[in-house]
Amino acid sequence: MQIINPTFFRILCYIFYSQSKKALIVFVLFFSVSITSQNISSAFIDKADSLIKEAPITYKAIDKVLRSKRKDTIYMRFFANRALNQKYLIGQSYALNQLGRRYRAYSQFAKAISLHNQALNAAHTKSNLEFKVYSLNMLSVVYRRTDAIKTALDYSQEALELAETVENPSDGLKRSINVSLNGIGNIYQTLEQYDLAIKQFQRSMLLEKDLGNELGIAINHQNIGECQEAKQDLTAALQSYLTSLAYNEKINSDMGRIICKNSIAQIFIKQKKINKALAILEPALADSKSLGDKYITSAVQINLGKALMQINLYSEAEKNILEGLRLAKKHNLPSSISQANLNLSELYEKQGDYKKSLNYYKTAQKFDEEISNIRNLRYVNDMIIRYDTEKKSNQIEVLAKENEIVKLKLRKNKTTLLISGIALALLAGIFFILYRQYQLKNEKKLLTLEQTMLRSQMNPHFLFNSLNSIKLYIINNEKKNAVYYLNKFSKLVRKILEASTLKEITLAEELETVELYLNIENIRFSNEINYTISIEDNIDSHTVKIPSLILQPFLENAIWHGLSSKEGEKKLILTASLGKNGFIDISIVDNGIGRDAAEKIKKNKVLKRKSIGIDITKERLTNFSKDYQNSFDIEILDLFDENKKSTGTKVILHIPTF
Which of 299, 405, 424, 570 sits CB 3.0–4.6 Å from 563 for a disulfide? Predict the structure, then answer.
């Protein structure tokens, strides 16, 4: 008879006396470790040892043996340790990634990231490209779940670029390419770029069909349905969900079935088909609980509460929504928390408890705003960190090349080492710079005008000056100003990114973006600029189309060349009026120092920066005018008073409308 371990007995007593969750976790961890070796069957141990001895290097070959146990954390932990002890790092990478997927399913994201990083390091050590790509994709999924959008996108793109370097990829690598495309689509979906997301999902689906991977096809149909639902195309979304469900039924995927059924029920709720929704949600809730995935359980429970509320079963509705909210809070599920609060607000409004309704509505709005701000901050921080990392990586690469040149010279002739090494290093540096310039010129020619325009709008000086202004507010503890400025800045960046994908936008949207830009620039000028934007009554700004982001270069010139050096009152007037022969006339008038004075100041500057914004704008207007009978025209007029003294500059854009 086996005597119980004393340490085990002490932990068990501690649980009973403390009755705490923390103690229970300690017990579970200890218990799982202590019985691991006892629970592993001898058949699996033999199978593991045989696999380690054969040491296959592809995901498909390893998964064929371990697939039945890959969701069992005890077996995967055992195999990871055994593979490490036998120096079979590819097998260890496989097991660590499967463990990371399980932790992700239970919303333990930090642990999942740690496991996937360990798997990535193991793959790097063995230079196994397939498992590098797989690990990068898994990291992208976890970061996307935590709203670290830029980091997630970087991992997906790195995985895709790495996979596409192989001329004849294996089936496992092809599958990873599809996962990367799907991940990029999910990130576009998070950023509400639904059309771009659908294109990625459709591309991934075609590749999945070539592989015959029905799970991948099901996932892509589900994702496309979510984008269609977000665009309010409920009929198309329902069809996509039903198609996904059919594939999940075919492959007998419990998780896939529950996700699809929840989405289908969600559509039925929006279509007021409550009985159909309830018939799906009630069994789906039981299935999701038995599966153990808190993310989908929370979503199903919240939807069930929403459906019950529609047929006035308020008590049951409240019970389900509150339980869904509890799960969402416990496992940090932002979208579920927000949706639960909105549903509770609607529920209490129907019951006439307007105070509770308002409180839950405010909570939902506050939570959405916090998510948006956190996501924007993370995105900006990721951009800065990414820039610094790439800069350091480039420096390391250059140093490595120089070091290699020196080593070659040492082998050839020790007597000429110093002179030859320095000369070659200098030549290599010069050739590298010239080659890089040649590459940049070719890349610039291949870029579209919209991409060139985006780089002009997202001026690094403007970005970093704006970030420095936010930093100054934070240092000075001016929280309201920091939040106000950050909201304006993030909204402007988003509008620029959205507009850059469009050939033309409405005049109203353009003026809204312009006002955001002027507002941010004016804050940096301590609100010294008095600017006005006016539209004549005979212009419908919501129907008039103009090229996207066409006005900013002229406004930037007016501010930085005309008004920045002016003392006293600073004015900037933007007016849109109906011109002759089907033209829209947009004038920008400033009372700055004038072009002649600005040119003199520019010549005296030590650092001169060539402005290409106007040239880009003319090219874009030329391209825009090809679709119209009339051509564009730009007038730049110098303004003078009675004494011939410069009083500013006026720019008039004549943009055709037919």
Answer: 570
- Tokens in use for 268? 């039925």
Total domains in the chain come to 4
Q: CA dist 652 to 496, 551, 579, Å?
A: 23, 11, 11
Min mean pLDDT across 182-196, 200-214, 380-394, 587-601 is at: 380-394
- Indicate whether 128 pLDDT > 50: yes
Among 49-63, 186-200, 249-263, where is mean pLDDT lowest? 186-200
CA proximity to 485, closest of 474, 495, 494, 496: 474
CB 101 within 8 A of CB 65: no
> If pLDDT is split at 50, 70 and 90, which confidence band does 10 have?
very low
466 found inside a domain: no
> Is 261 part of a structural domain of the chain?
no
d(CA 223, CA 187): 11
CA of 208: how far to CAs of 176, 182, 594, 601, in Å?
Answer: 10, 11, 61, 61
Same domain, 516 and 625: yes
Helical packing angle, 129-145 and 171-190, nearest 10°: 20
pLDDT tens digit sequence for 293-339: 777 888 889 989 899 999 999 999 899 989 988 988 887 777 788 88
CATH number, residue 636: 3.30.565.10
Evaluate whether 628 touches 658 at the Cβ level (below 8 Å): yes
**Whether residue 330 is found in the same domain as residue 388:** no
Pairing between strand 504-506 and 633-640? unpaired
pTM here is: 0.45
Compute the radius of gyration of the chain from its Cα atoms: 31
Hey, what are 514's tokens?
A: 């312009």
Amino acid at 383: M
Containing structural domain, residue 32: 1-37
385-422 pLDDT, tens digit each: 444 444 455 555 666 666 667 666 666 667 676 777 78
CA distance 271 to 237: 12
Nearest to 89 by CA among 69, 62, 65: 62
Placement of tokens 């106007």 in the chain: 614
Q: Is the pLDDT of residue 493 over 50?
A: yes
Whether residue 136 is contained in a domain is answered as: no
Quote the CA–CA distance of 302 and 307 in Å, as a whole number: 9
Cα gap 67→135, rounded to integer Å:
17
Q: Which of 226, 150, 152, 151 is nearest to 183 (CA)?
A: 152
Residues 321 and 423 in one domain: no
